């Protein structure tokens, strides 16, 4: 069942555990406005504020109840009961940290971050949203984690919500050149139509009904080579003569194709400036090992995967912050075999458009990407929620300004806001 449509109305969402806003990008492309983004790391909320200047970005500890602070940040929400005024967001979205159940985590059942899934659901219940979208790692569906899902279902049932049976979705099935798999929990209030999981639009093989999933070659199409610019040893941007991409995916990332399914706001940005592209210095021995690694293979010492231009990227991983060990993400080797990919090239592998800028610290930028949902995957799920909610948004004509570039400078520490 789908609710009656409300032509042109855009949905409104709050993203918890937002990171830089990968899922927010996808939901905006599906026709939602991002009213508020919340994360506990200042580097993430600063980047979110830069990208979604029309909304609010809050640095909050989501172990605590932050519903009041979030409500006050909603449009016209200062010290007002937004529920009474009908300004409740259509949905809460986000991916609570998953290290306690991740296949590469410590799998500690007592890890306090496990409770962040409960926090996500409780915030949605307290704010009375019609829909919740939670992203998690595929191991959530393994038998040992069944009690976590059972507890969530019980909490939701008592509050008048239901969960559609969780499902693992593959990014490559939705036009992302990366073998990333994630579980999504679709939750709806019982007086709202249940959303359905999106059907694949892309595939690796020859299928008359599906588009061909873009390759790594398609992903890098039209990007200037960072190796051509000495300025990129010391900073993450350089002015260039733009290169015209020839693949549809390259044109899509550069904003040069009419994408009828993209309902996001336009941004005022410069195609003649290559960003997120600081170069990485490698020892000669490392370069030698990279070059000796076959495309599609793994370099044994660093465990880095060398990208195959005619293949797909493996999952981009995040590493960890100082609080959890400062592990550096294992960044893939470029197809050339002489260096790792830049953050901009990683953005292309993740379906992040070229207008998006991340932290100017390449380590932080890699982390931001690895912790995020590829926007094209988020768009597909967001479109399913919009359909269930009866929304029929149109592509907006407004051009949204980007925030102050100082927001992208590296952030080491900053005080977190307490609950209001």
Automatic annotation (TrEMBL):
Signal peptide: none
Keyword Lipid metabolism in record: no
EC id: 2.1.1.37
InterPro entries linked: C5-Methyltransferase (IPR050390), C5_DNA_meth_AS (IPR018117), C5_MeTfrase (IPR001525), C5_meth_CS (IPR031303), SAM-dependent_MTases_sf (IPR029063)
PROSITE patterns: C5_MTASE_1 (PS00094), C5_MTASE_2 (PS00095), SAM_MT_C5 (PS51679)
Gene3D superfamilies: DNA Methylase, subunit A, domain 2, Vaccinia Virus protein VP39
GO biological process assignments: DNA restriction-modification system; methylation
Catalytic site: 98
Keyword annotations from UniProtKB, A to Z: Methyltransferase, Plasmid, Restriction system, S-adenosyl-L-methionine, Transferase
Reaction(s) catalysed by this chain's protein: a 2'-deoxycytidine in DNA + S-adenosyl-L-methionine = a 5-methyl-2'-deoxycytidine in DNA + S-adenosyl-L-homocysteine + H(+)
Top-level taxon in the UniProt lineage: Bacteria
An annotated Gene Ontology molecular function: DNA (cytosine-5-)-methyltransferase activity
The family this protein is said to belong to: Belongs to the class I-like SAM-binding methyltransferase superfamily. C5-methyltransferase family.
Protein name: Cytosine-specific methyltransferase
């Amino acid at each position: 069942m789908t609710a009656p449509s409300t032509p042109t109305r855009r949905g409104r969402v709050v993203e918890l555990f937002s990171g830089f806003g990968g899922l927010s990008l996808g939901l905006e492309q599906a026709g939602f406005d991002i009213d508020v983004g919340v994360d506990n790391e200042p580097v993430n909320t600063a980047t979110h504020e830069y990208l979604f200047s029309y909304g609010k970005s809050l640095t909050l500890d989501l172990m605590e109840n932050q519903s009041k602070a979030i409500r006050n940040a909603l449009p016209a929400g200062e010290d007002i009961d937004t529920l009474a005024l009908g300004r409740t967001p259509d949905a809460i979205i986000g991916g609570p940290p998953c290290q306690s159940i991740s296949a590469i985590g410590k799998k500690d059942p007592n890890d306090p971050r496990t409770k962040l899934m409960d926090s996500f659901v409780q915030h949605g219940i307290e704010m009375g949203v019609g829909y919740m979208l939670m992203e998690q790692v595929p191991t959530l569906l393994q038998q040992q984690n069944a009690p976590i899902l059972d507890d969530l279902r019980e909490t939701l049932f008592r509050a008048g919500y239901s969960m559609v049976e969780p499902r693992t979705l593959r990014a490559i099935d939705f036009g992302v050149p990366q073998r990333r798999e994630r579980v999504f929990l679709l939750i709806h209030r019982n007086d709202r139509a249940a959303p359905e999981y999106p059907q694949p639009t892309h595939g690796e093989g020859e299928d008359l009904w599906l588009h061909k999933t873009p390759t790594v070659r398609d992903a890098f199409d039209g990007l200037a080579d960072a190796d051509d610019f000495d300025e990129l040893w010391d900073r993450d941007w350089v002015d260039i003569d733009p290169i015209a991409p020839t693949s549809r995916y390259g044109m899509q990332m550069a904003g040069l194709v009419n994408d009828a399914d993209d309902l996001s706001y336009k941004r005022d940005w410069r195609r003649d400036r290559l960003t997120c592209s600081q170069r990485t210095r490698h020892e000669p021995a490392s370069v030698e090992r990279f070059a000796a690694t076959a495309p599609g293979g793994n370099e044994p010492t660093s465990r880095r995967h060398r990208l195959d231009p005619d293949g797909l990227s493996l999952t981009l991983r995040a590493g960890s912050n100082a609080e959890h060990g400062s592990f550096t993400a294992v960044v893939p080797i470029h197809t050339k075999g002489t260096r790792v990919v830049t953050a901009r090239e990683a953005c292309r592998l993740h379906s992040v458009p070229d207008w998006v800028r991340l932290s100017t610290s390449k380590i932080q930028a890699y982390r931001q990407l690895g912790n995020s949902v590829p926007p094209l995957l988020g768009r597909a799920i967001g479109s399913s929620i919009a359909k269930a909610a009866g929304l029929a948004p149109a592509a907006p004509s407004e051009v949204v300004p980007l925030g102050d570039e100082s927001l992208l400078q590296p952030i080491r520490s900053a005080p977190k806001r307490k609950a209001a």
